[in-house]
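Troubleshooting log. The previous run stalled partway through. Resubmitting the same two chains, unchanged.
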Amino acid sequence: MRAPHHMLKACVVVAALGLAVPAALAADYVVVIDKMTFGPVPAELHPGDTITWQNDDIFRHSATARDESFDVDLPAKSSAKMVVGDAGSVEFFCKFHPGMKGILVIAP
Amino acid sequence: MIRSLIVAGLFILGVSGVAGAADAPTDPQIAHIAYTAGQIDIAAAEQAIQKSTNQTVVDFANLMIADHKAVNDQALALVTKLGVTPEDNATSQALSQQAADKLAELDKLDGAAFDKAYLDNEVAYHAAVNSALSTVLIPSAQNAELKSLLETGLQLFTEHQHHAEMVAAEFK
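Second attempt completed without errors. Output:
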């Protein structure tokens, strides 16, 4: 009876570590939007990191992925947080001001 | 046409390169011109929303109203804070007269003809205002906050101009 109990415990610990490790390493970033421009994006991004889009403008903007993986609405002087998705290169733009754009490069 | 009228208006004010800094528009005049320019585009957008049945055109017009209203609200807050009273002037009057003529002209059009004329005018109008902002209004502005707001306006209107060109291209 003891052996299965230990094994179960070990499994639980491994499972807990497996979940906890990425969460502990996840980084939080802020991208500032000001004067109709997206500020610098994080140089190193990984799935599970968060980006807070901070709109300092007096206009409504959005951070919208061209591949539709995210679409964050940003009313004037507001901010919103999102979790970074799968690895890859994601072009984004403001759907209200299509000239505003950038690229997120997400490493595995 | 629009560009020439704005230029004409600015000449009435005597702000051509030849006239020199002494004749440049004052901050109260600049505030009035910028506010008037914004209101004109809002009026044009309201007409488009009323007349157009094309969703792309209506969406663009709604964006123009939201953005220009945001700038003008900010401009009003700024002049209030600075204790400046916007001053009517020949340029504002020329802009308003031209805009009234344009509204009347567009009012006679319907459907696709209206959509195309509205978008073409949006391109031309934003180009003319941007030219006035960069060559006369921004260089002449004395107050730093007013200058900064005009610069933000120039960035916004430049984006609008390109956006309008993009949308207009779909209506050729």
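Takeaways: The two ends of chain A are 41 Å apart (CA to CA). Residues 78 and 91 of chain A are 22 Å apart (CA to CA).
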